[in-house]
Design goal:
The chain is of the alpha/beta class. The protein has a single domain, classed as Rossmann fold, CATH 3.40.50.1820. 37% of the residues lie in helices and 23% in strands. It has 9 helices and 8 strands. An 8-stranded mixed beta sheet has the order 1-2-4-3-5-6-7-8, sandwiched between helices. The protein starts with 6 loop residues before the first helix and ends in a 7-residue tail after the last helix. The relative contact order is 0.16.
């Protein structure tokens, strides 16, 4: 099927892109250890920088699970990584966080870009290929849903905070070769996505046979970093149950 763009959806997120940079700053002081910058990926004529966090449990012998983190509008990989860093250190998880020019155009590259990035990281660190996960926030959730559906045999499970599949993109659900488990979080005071929208995405996935862990958070707005210390363990509790088949 020919790839479609969703410019209308991205225009609705322009206010979010302006405010999320401020939201992300809430997470900058959460971790004591700095991210390990790991260079750049050259892909289809573009260059993407990324950061990696490797927990102290890494022994260069045993492969560890990994999460690819997709930041929201106005954010970047290193800052988004810091929101997860303390949890990853405690639980022995490798984090990979690219800085992306989030846009509808980027989404056409996601199904090849995200696996290419993780394969590059595999040349540097031992990742458990059956336990590579995705988590995206807000505008980054669009790309997370794309990769979850179109790379369902590469990623073991996925999670999003404040993100939906827009109706013009419902077709990606039919493209999934595997019913990838997905966890979704939304605040009941979110400024950019309504409960009706997120419930529609949930119901679509359930109707197609996907396992969905869906959480509505009372008195919560779009600001994921403010409650990341609660959300992240719940994300991991769900995702870590799943691994790709042998």
């Amino acid at each position: 099927m020919k790839r479609k763009f969703r410019p209308a959806s991205w225009s609705l997120l322009l206010p979010a892109i302006l405010c999320l940079a401020g939201c992300l700053s809430c997470g900058k002081s959460r971790a004591n250890q700095p991210a390990v910058p790991s260079g750049t990926l050259q892909f289809q004529g573009s260059q993407y920088s990324y950061a990696v966090f490797v927990p102290s449990a890494y022994d260069h012998v045993h492969a560890l699970p990994a999460i690819l983190l997709v930041h929201g509008g106005g954010g970047n990989g290193p800052d988004f990584l810091k929101i997860w860093q303390d949890f990853a250190e405690t639980n022995g998880i490798i984090l990979v966080a690219p800085t992306l020019p989030l846009s509808a155009a980027l989404e056409t590259q996601v199904p090849q870009l995200f696996p290419a990035l993780m394969e590059l990281v595999k040349t540097q660190w031992l990742l458990d290929s059956r336990r590579i996960y995705l988590f995206g926030y807000s505008a980054g959730g669009y790309s997370t849903f794309d990769a979850a559906m179109l790379d369902s045999t590469y990623f073991a499970a996925a999670g999003v905070f404040a993100a939906i599949i827009t109706p013009d993109y419902y077709w990606i659900v039919q493209k999934a070769q595997r019913k990838i488990p997905i966890t979704m979080y939304i605040g009941d005071h979110d400024q950019f996505f309504s409960l009706a929208q997120t419930r529609a995405t949930r119901d679509l996935l359930l109707s197609m046979g996907f396992t969905v862990h869906y959480v509505e958070i009372a008195k919560q707005d779009h600001n994921y970093p403010a409650i990341a210390r609660w959300v992240n363990p719940d994300v991991w509790t769900f995702m870590s149950q799943y691994s790709l088949p042998q």
